[in-house]
Each structure stands twice: as structure tokens, then as C-alpha cells.
């Protein structure tokens, strides 16, 4: 959805500017090759990727039916799931009006960065070490697939996906913790930490279903919190499924609180 952009500067990378429509609520972009110098303002846009969609409307152009129009356009795709960022009454009302069910809640939890020295916890039956690139990939992928068998994204990670993440500038094997059985050496679970700037994220915590009940979630989270100490961070954050009450309790025990809920809707 576009409208005249007036005297705003045209040009620039379209994807960057579409992204800023979400972050800043407004953008301008240049016309195509046949329209040099033209400019438009993004009033709203919808993005569809791998069965899921999200949209944004410029704050000054809301309550004009633009959101409904975009949602109805997206719903022509078979099996689409639609994200609403923030559990907002307006989004819930629109979803109900369009016959959509609430199918997923994703919570953003945050905490202030820990101060002072914090020791990593120990368990004599479990050995915690860090990830070794070139050695641990296949074992980790197998445990990750079992731990997230019902997760729509994390459970489908492939070796190519893992290699792509390892190649990211933020990847640090010293912030990728593996928990093994101290006797057999079998991998039981893992916790992956992502640090960018002054924000530390518990990126992924997974435990093999066969190892549930051994306190691995709390043990690995304790190692992450110890690693965050002294890292020059201001804020910690993580995303967790709203139905995963055990994980939410684990995170709450170390100071995380719910900041926002993102909701996914789908056709009945």
C-alpha cells in the first residue's frame, strides 16, 4: 500500500526501507527504472515467508481499513499463519471478525543484566562444556530435533542452517553450552547464547525428552547467567512459547519477566 511521498528523498534499497517501515513507521522508496525520481510513502505492507505472514501499517494511516485489506490479501495464501506483534485488542477483534483462531503465543521475556560475580552451577552427574565446531554439529542437530519436535521453526534446523548461524558475526562457541551425561558422555541438552552489543539473548535452550526431569534447564540457564556476568551487558532477553510453562518458571527464577506477547492466528 503506497501513497504520495511529497518532497521526501527517493531511492535506496527497498528491503532496508520496508524493514524501517516496521521499525520507524514510515519510509520512502524510489520508483522503478521507468520512473526515475518518483517517490512514494509506504502506508503499510505485508510480508509472507514460509507459511507465516506479518504486516505493518504507518501509525498516521491506521483505522482506515488498510490492515484488514492486507490481511484479506494474505489470507488468499493456503494455510497461512498471521503474526500480530503485541497481544492487542484491535488485532484480536479483527482476527475474530475474519474467522481466525489464536494458535500460538510467543512471549518476549527480559531481565536486567546480572551484576557482580556469579558462579556457574554444578551437577556431579552432568558435565557442561562448550560447543566445538567441526565435532559437535551432528550430535547437536539430533538432540535439537528431538527437543523441538513440535516447534515450527527450531525443530526443522538442518546442517546448512546450523552452519549459517555458526558463520554469523555474533556466534561464539564459548557461549554455546552442551550438557552431557558424566558417565556415558551422551549429549542431553544445550543452551545457546547470543550477544549483540549490550544485549544478551538466551537464543535456544533444548533438552532431550529422554533427559527431562534431571534439572538440565535450570543448570544450563545458570551457566548462561554466569556467562552474562561481566560481559558489559545492559539487558537480557529471550523468546519462549507461551504454553511452555516449565521454561517460563525456570526463567522467572533467574529474574526474567514477561515484556510482550506476540500472537499467531490461522483459519479455523
UniProtKB/TrEMBL annotation:
A Pfam family recorded for this sequence: Acetyltransf_1
GO biological process terms on file: mycothiol biosynthetic process
Keywords in alphabetical order: Acyltransferase, Repeat, Transferase
Any GO molecular function: mycothiol synthase activity
Name of this chain's protein: Mycothiol synthase
Domain of life: Bacteria
HAMAP family per record: MshD
N-acetyltransferase domain location: 126-268
Listed PANTHER family: N-ACETYLTRANSFERASE
InterPro entries tied to this protein: Acyl_CoA_acyltransferase, GNAT_dom, Mycothiol_AcTrfase
Listed CDD domains: NAT_SF
